[in-house]
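Worked example

This section walks through a single chain of length 271. The input is the sequence exactly as stored; nothing has been trimmed or padded.
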Amino acid sequence: MAVAGRAVAPVLDTFELMTWRSLIGFVIVVGVGGLMGLLGQIRFDRLGTHTIRNIFHFTGQNLWFWAITVIPLAQVFALEFTSPLWVILLSPLLLGERITRSRALSAVLGFVGILIVARPDLTQVNPGILAAAGSAIGFAGSAIFTKRLTRHEGIVSILFWLTVMQAALGFAGSALDGDITLPTAAVMPWLILIGIAGIVAHLCLTKALTLAPATVVVPMDFIRLPAIAVVGMLVYDEPLDLYVLLGALVILAAIWINLSGEARRRPSTVT
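Given that input, the structure is written out below as tokens.
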């Protein structure tokens, strides 16, 4: 989605990008949900929580899409991945989840790995850096309220309201200047890729949050940094240096600590 977002940025602003992405996601959710007979899961009794969740995510995603066009990808991802720290801090207040030693260690160690890879120069604070940092708070809020919704609603309902509300928010933002750009033939394949990647990512995240605490799920997202480093090498000819490899090992260690700690807390079952 980062690569596709950069490709689309010269044609569409972030509000327009979010509008078309959400509309494509809506078609996917309704189409697949209808074929599987799951549209009956859609509920209307928690629209307030859906609204809060989608405002957090819409704000974070807009800031993220803008940040990837003005500062290096490594800096964007490094700052975005402060999100698990916000989740760990806020989860006891909003979700009642306990901060365990392994969860806290995993989040801190994962963030250290991010800094090793990205080595962001925070002495030069600019709007792009502030946008990337703000996106982390938006994504953390989205994850927390998604977890709250998974306690009462199915995945299809959560994804349905995600696409509907974010399409409406995107359209409202796009209309502020009185000019909404239609996708060109060259841009449309990238938009479809963004729409598919976005809805699949939300499907995976939402399912994960039905199975485990947010403080366990969100630090798993650290794996995206070594992944984007490989993408950068293949697509943008960005070199893989020793820091990238070292940071990736630290990130994997953080994920292992998190999952190992969770496995020890779960009682074993005999089948």
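What to look for: The chain has a mean pLDDT of 82.
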